[in-house]
User: Fold this.
Amino acid sequence: MPELLARLSAGERLALVSDAGTPLLSDPGFRLVRAARAAGIAVSPVPGPSALLAALSAAGLPCERFCFEGFLPARPAARRERLAELAAERRTMVFFETPQRIEATLADLIERFGGGRAACLARELSKRHETLLGPDLAAIAARLAADPEQRRGEMTLVVAGAPDEAGARLAEGRRLYALLARELPPGRAARLAAELAGVPKAALYEGRD
Assistant:
C-alpha cells in the first residue's frame, strides 16, 4: 500500500479491479480506498457486475429495503450467534457464501428462521451454469443435498425478512427476559423467556444493558 500511495501521489493513475464482481464488496480493498482518500487522492467509482444487485433483481423477494450481510462467520458458534441477532430483521437479507459452507449455513438458517422462510440461492450469476433455487430455505437445502453440482461456484443467498409475528414474538421475549432477569440468573431468565415467547434464546441477549 505505501508504494501504491507514493505512485498515486506522484500523479499516476491506478485501477482497482476484480475477477469476481464489483471490488470492495466483502473484500479488503476498502483499506486502499480509505488510505487514498485520507491522503487527499481522488477516488472515483466505476460501476461493474454486482452479484448483490443481480441476485436481488431475480430473487422475487421484496427489495424496497434490504440489508447486505456479506459473509457470515465461518465458525459455527459465531455464525449461529449472528443469525440469532438477525432473527427480528424485517428487511430482505443478502449473504455471500462459499461452496464449502453453504450446507452448514442453510442448516443454521433453517434452525433459526424455519425452513419455510422464503429465500433464493443465486449461483454462478451471468455464467453458463447460472441457477436460481427456491422458493424457501428447506427447498434450497433439499436441492443441494440431492445434486452436488448445485454446491459449486459463486453463491449469493437472498432471504426474506422476518414476518410481523416473528418480530412481535421477539419483542415479547425480550420484555419477558428483562423482567425475569431482575429475579433470576441471566441464563435461566433467557431460557424461560425464550420458551414462553417461542423465540431462540440467543436472540434475547441483543440490546441487553
